[in-house]
Amino acid sequence: MNKKHFIVLFCLGLFIIACKKSSPIVEEIETFLGFQKPANFPATAYNFASNPVTKDGFELGRMLFYEPRLSRNNTITCGSCHIQSSAFTQHGHDVSHGIDDRLGTRNSPPIMNLAWSKAFNWGGGVYDLDTQPIIPITTHEEMDENLENVYNKLRAMPKYTSKFKAAFGTEEINTANFMKALSQFMVMCISSNAKYDKVMRKEGGVSFTAEELEGYTLFKDKCSSCHTEPLFTDGSFRNNGLGISPVNDKGLYTATLIETDKYKFKVPSLRNLKYTAPYMHDGRFLTLNGVLEHYNSEVQATPNLDPLLSGNRLGISLTANEKTKISAFLNTLNDEDFIKNPLLAEQ
C-alpha cells in the first residue's frame, strides 16, 4: 500500500467513525414524539381522542398541506397562503391571493396553536378543525376545487394510497381521513418557545429587560382582557372599532345572522407579530405602531362596538412612551424556533 492509498483509507475511516458517532443525534431528530402540550399552556380544545397524532398521520397531513393538487389547476397549496417563515400567514399581502391570483377579502390568518381554538376563521362559522379545510379548498378565490376531484387526483398517486394505508389502516381516501390527516399537521404547528415562554417557564435564567417588564405591566392593564395569556387571544369575536369597510364585511354576522354579531371578528393571537404583518382581518395596518395608534385615537363608534372600547373615550389611551414599551413586550412573543422548525417545513 502506498502513502496515497493509506491517506484515502484513513480519511474514509474517520468519516465512518464520525457517522457512527452522529447516529444517535440523527435518531433523536427523527424520533417523532407526537403532540406535546407546552408546560405553560392550558388544556387543549381539540378532540385528540378521536384523532390521536401519529407519525404516519402527521407526515400525511404535511404532504397534503403542501400538495398543489388540492387546488383546481394544481398550483395552490395550503402553504401558498400559510407560509412557515411568516408564522403560516401570507406575509406582505393585505388580503389573501389565491388561484389565478384572485383576491379574497380577508388577510390570511396564522396556522398556529389551533389545538386550543374552539372556532375558526376571522368571521367564525367553523367550530371543528377537522372541517375547516373544506372552506379554502372549495372557495372560488382560494383553491376553487371540489373534494371529490381532490380525492380522485390523490387516488391516482401510489404515494398517497400507501400513506393513507399507513396512517389509517386503509388505502381508501375519504373525507374523514383526509381531514384528520390535515388536522394532525395543523395541531402540531405549536408556537411556544418565544422569550416570553422561557421567562414564564423559568428556563435558562431568561428574564425580561426593564423595558419589556414595564411593557408587560402595561399590556396586562390595557390589552389582556381580549389577548389572554399564554395564547394571547381569548378566542372570542369582537368589534374593535375599525369601521365599516368598503366591502362591508360583516364578520361573525355572516355565519350567525344575529344582528348583534355584525362587524365582530375573531380576536387574533399577538404571537409572532414580527413575521405576520400586515395586521387586522383586512390587513389594513402595515406596522404594529399603526395598530396601537388605532386603539389610541382611531376607534370608530360602529354598531356592536366592544364595550371595552366605548364609554367616555373611544379606544385605549396610549402615550408614545407606553406604545414603545408595549411593543418591546410584544417582541418577546416572537418565536424563531416555530418559523424554522424543520418538522413543519415542506419535505
TrEMBL record:
Gene3D superfamilies, sorted: Cytochrome c-like domain (1.10.760.10)
PROSITE patterns: CYTC, PROKAR_LIPOPROTEIN
Keyword Protein biosynthesis: no
Location relative to the cell: Periplasm
A Pfam cross-reference name: CCP_MauG
MF-aspect GO terms: peroxidase activity
Keyword vocabulary terms for this entry: Heme, Iron, Metal-binding, Oxidoreductase, Periplasm, Peroxidase, Signal
Entry-linked InterPro entries: Cyt_c-like_dom, Cyt_c-like_dom_sf, Cytochrome_c_Peroxidase/MauG, Di-haem_cyt_c_peroxidsae, MauG/Cytc_peroxidase
Domain of life: Bacteria
UniProt domain Cytochrome c: residue ranges: 210-334
Protein's UniProt name: Cytochrome-c peroxidase
